[in-house]
Amino acid sequence: GNELPEITEYVDEEVKSDEKSPLYGIAEDKNVIFISLESIQSFVINNEVNGQEITPFLNSLIGDESTYYFENFYHQTQQGKTSDSEFLVENSLYPLSRGAVFFTHGGNEYNGMPEILGEEDYYSAVFHANNKSFWNRDQMYDSLNLDHFYGEEAYEVNQDNSVGWGLKDKPFFEQSIKYLQSMEQPFYSKFITLTNHFPFELSEEDSSIDKYDSSSNTLNNFFPTVRYMDEAVEQFFTQLKESGLYEDSVIILMGDHYGISENHHKAMSEYLDKEEITPYDHVQLQRVPMFIHIPGHENGKVMSEVTGQIDVKPTLLNLLGVPAENDIQFGNDMFIEDRKGYIGLRNGDFISDEYISTRGVCYDRESGEPIETEENTEENTEENTSAENQVANPCDPIQQKVEKEMELSDNIIYGDLFRFVDFSESEDEQNTD
Ligand code: GP9
Ligand code: MN
Question: Domain named Sulfatase N-terminal: which ranges (predicted)?
């Protein structure tokens, strides 16, 4: 554990802020209903296919006074897909660059959301109609101190109510409500949807909008399943209202990772009406929708700040008024000004307020134009590289921080370093109980 002082020092200096969130404690003692939206990307929001709106319900939340919508929110997952997004949200640590940390380090000590909120008397549960060993969730959820996992066996699954990967999202939410109603409050719950999963299968009957027509069946099929998920979420909101749980809850909706990979760039360029999908566009396609819906709240708006999955834990803890001051987090509250100012993707790319860095090229974030640096200017002759002619690459200092941060986060995981940390509040407080 002798790497810990370096890690805490780095996090204290480079990540943490003293700024108090303007929304600190606004959802104190409320239930948390976190909905993980499978494979959705932000490009479907407020967009159409064949002249039909793709996500009418999600769109209706934007502009609703009780909703904050983050339009520049990035997923930061790698090979562990859904499980990586869960890992980011629960821990504000980075997943690994290879493999799925849920499998490779599922037995580590963590200081995740279920554990922190457990100390505030929250009951924690995950709802997901899939086998508990998928992504090694059974072991990882134990390590996260989750109280209960409602997996496949908690649901009635048959041919009629299934498609593709299993239980369809509408019956999934319908069947979940009874469990939620009987749960001790306040609770921290997470619902993981499944129907909008590759290869995006859906019956005609369940399809409210037509498929797209392009060279990629994957992209073609994607739109009707996204719409189905949108309808399932709308139904769930209605059921929450009917059950009386709605008013006492804060509802988070977040995309877990991309659904359309770069193998479908040709079809994507047709859909987005672009000549080609550039590396810059590809990074921008890693945006996933993020909504924070607080019933009764009236200041909701569209947030344009650069944010990502690493930021969810600090943001949510602050909304709930849980300081967790000794926690080691690599993200910031999305509502404060004094943030790190960049989001690192797990392949080393990053998005900062001003730049996007991918494949060694530094782009202006707003315009998408590459920034001229000594590495890419044509007059890169020996003469010109003399000190005074060099144009420094403005992405370099941020790149270094991104790499440092990920190295430190990896060290925590590889060394299982949280075994050596006491996350409880100050000693004074400890002595009082
Ligand atoms: C499986 C579901 C989908 O349980 O979470 O996993 P994914 O393939 O998206 O990681
Ligand atoms: Mn997924």
Answer: 30-322
Kindly provide the ipTM of the predicted complex, given to two decimals: 0.99
Instruction: Pick the atom of ligand 1 nearest to 128's CA.
Output: 4
Angle among Cα 85, 87, 90 to the nearest 5 degrees reads 110
| 338 annotated as belonging to a binding site for a ligand | no
pLDDT of residue 1: 63
In this prediction, residue 2 carries a pLDDT of 84
Please report the atom of ligand 1 found closest to the CA of residue 197. 9
Q: Please spell the DSSP secondary structure of 413-426, one letter per residue.
A: HHTTGGGG---S--
Query: What single-letter amino acid sits at 276?
Result: E
Read off φ and ψ for residue 67, nearest 5 degrees. -120, 135
Q: How far is CA 146 from CA 35, 139, 143, 149, 249, in A?
A: 16, 10, 8, 7, 19
Give the C-alpha separation, 164 to 154, whole Å.
Answer: 19
Residue of 256, 260, 309 with the most ligand 1 atoms within 8 Å of its CB, for mutation: 256
Quote the pLDDT of residue 430: 45
Tell the burial category of 47 from Cβ atoms under 10 Å away from its Cβ (0-12, 13-18, 19+): middle
**CA-to-CA distance for 304 and 339, rounded, in angstroms?**
13
- The pTM of the full predicted model, rounded to 2 decimals, is 0.95
- Closest to 259 (Cα-Cα) out of 289, 303, 292, 291: 289
Instruction: Give tens-digit pLDDT for 329-344.
Output: 999 999 999 999 999 9
C-alpha dist (Å) from residue 137 to 39, 75, 173: 19, 20, 20
DSSP state of 44: G
Q: How far is CA 258 from CA 288, 292, 351, in A?
A: 7, 20, 16
Could you tell me if the CB of 130 is within 6 A of ligand 1?
Answer: yes
What is the distance between the alpha carbons of residues 384 and 382, in angstroms, rounded to a whole number? 5
d(CA 156, CA 165): 15
Helix (H, G, I), strand (E, B) or coil at 430: helix
Q: Which residues of the chain have pLDDT under 70?
A: 1, 375, 377-390, 425-433
User: What six digits make up the tokens of 94?
Assistant: 């980075």
Region of 135 please: left (phi>0), alpha (psi -120 to 50) or beta.
Answer: left
pLDDT for res 349:
98
Q: Is 82 one of the annotated active-site residues of the chain?
A: yes
Alpha helices (runs of H) in 208-326, residue ranges in sequence order: 217-243, 265-271, 279-284, 312-319
Cα–Cα dist 363/350, whole Å: 10
Question: According to the annotation, is 385 in a ligand binding site?
Answer: no
Local structure of residue 13 (DSSP, 8 states): I
